[in-house]
Fold this protein.
Amino acid sequence: MDESAPLKILIADDSDSDRLILKTLLKRLGHMVVDAANGHEAVALFQSETPDIVLLDALMPSMDGMEAARHIKKLAGERLVPLIFITSLTEPEDLAGCLEAGGDGFLSKPYNRVMIKAKVNAFNRMRLMHQALSDQRDLMHERNRQLLKEQHIARGVFDNVAHTGCLNAPNIRFHASPLSVFSGDVLFASPRPAGGMLVFAGDFTGHGLPAAIGAMPVAESFYGMAGKGFNGADILREINQKLVRILPKDMFCCGAMVEVDFALNQLNIWNGGLPDMWLMRSPTERYSLPSRHLPLGILGPDQFKADMETVRSRPGDRLLLMTDGVLECSDSEGQLFGEQGVRRAIENAGLSRHPFDALMSEIQRFTGQHKFGDDLTLCCLEMVDEAGQAALPDAVELSTLAGPTQWRCDYELQGSTLGEFNPLPLLLHICMEVPGLRRRSGEVYTLLSELYNNALEHGVLQLPSEWKYTPEGFDRYYSERAKRLSRVDGHYIRFSFHHDLTALGGRLRVVCEDSGEGFDFQNHPVLQATEMAQSGPRYGGRGLALIKRLAKTVQFDKKGSRVDVVYEWFF
Amino acid sequence: MVDKPHLDEEALAELQDVMEDEFETLINTYLSDSRDRIESLKKAISDGDAEALAHTAHSFKGSCINIGAPRLGALCREVEKAGQDGRLSDVQPVLDTIDAEFQRVTDALHTLMAGGAE
């Protein structure tokens, strides 16, 4: 704004000669003048002319200057219109009265050209500064409003991508701030196609928009891949690779992945940079599961290790995972809650209290607050009977296209690929092209994964399932598995699919053949028993039993290294 | 007490400078305004309205000082003071002096304008 730009000035004086002098003086200074002979006229002109500055005689008939000043200031509202009293009053009380009525300054009679010019300029500067401040304030309000609106929209988009999945399952308790999108914490859970679930907790460095943007691809990868049957390690590799590519150097994501298998009563866990997880079996028996990896988004794909640690569990066991926000809670003196706080809370939980409640109330007691920081995420999941678990909903929308109905497909994995690649999502994907099968993705996935795992672990790797019966054998089983996977040259697992329509639906025939030595299927208890009354954690047995239950027919040949399964679906 | 000049030559010269062509209008406005004000002063006395008296005298004083008639302004100040103090009985002699002084100022201003027009 130009300080020397002409102003519109309202003057009010009941003395005609004085008004004429003042008007002329102001005009000579280059300003535009509107004049009034009393207070009433002045107020009316103020409304119709919206002048920049007002000069008012303090004493006038028909509403004096004081009263006119009050009206004018009220009409001006937030706008600063400097109001100068023209007066020959000298009593301090009279002058104070002028200021109280809203006056910003005085101009004394007789008029002095130099003084008038200086006063008008000074008050104009004040007016312009006020205007600039108001404009900036309005701009800031508008920006802020815009920002909040954008965050609101972003939040909506984020919620669609990073929904809470199956976090509301009865075996999960969790605390996540509703504002966590912009705090950098994420917590996702998804059922797996063949039962069980995947849980991911993450904590991005930094807050606000960058953290929220980083969380989007993590959510997308997690839910997308989990639903397609990828395992935790596959998803971790994908997330890591994405984050390495998109995040700036100083940003990464501490995270933990938990693969929950209720049927096997087993947890596969991966902790990269989050606080210790706790597996709680009873008030006295608990294990900490510390971070063994760097956070996600740091190492390149060739250095990143997604190996998950397998932990046996029992029904009723509870796994507690949390982000740094829990440890970083502070009390009124700035002391941190820390790992010892967590330990204290779960040690004191005793028999009657759920460890989740125990930890939450201990944090509240410690911080003295019922509402704590945004970046505090806590999740407790309980091992339950699979029957109580909802599988992946079959409500997957059906394609309007009929999809392929008559097709064959052979797929063979060879050599070292057997140790490196999980073919199940791909195989499931092929089968899911058939709408009739898509509604049964859980069953199809279970079938394929049991066939594949049997072929790999018992066929190619020749691991005896008896090992898994004891805790020592369990560890041996998995270390031997890893060892043998590095010596699979010359081996193969071959899947042959054949799908055809029947009168009532369709039929999928899957032949799974491996290069192993097979097994004595003639004398296998499951295959002989007419009832599936299996008891105890007999893994190999469970797999076969499941296949028998799901499939119409199961046939073994080549000494058990070739399985022929027919699965039927109906309209 | 009233020892000020009838006309403030310096102030009038400045006004002439500022007003240019409108100087005459200004003087005529002042003179007719002042006649009204003197009537108002007289009315206030006959009404016994001390406040109106002080008020009018105050405004009249301002105009006089602005136009460059300081002696008349000083007389107005006396009336204003008397009005403020409620001494209406003291005012009549001052008012007579104002009448006379106003006549002098009128004549002087007319002379000034006549001179300026030459």
User: Anything to note?
Assistant: Residues 113-161 of chain A form the longest helix (49 residues). The radius of gyration of chain A is 39 Å. Residues 162-388 of chain A form a domain with the Phosphatase 2c; domain 1 fold (CATH 3.60.40.10).
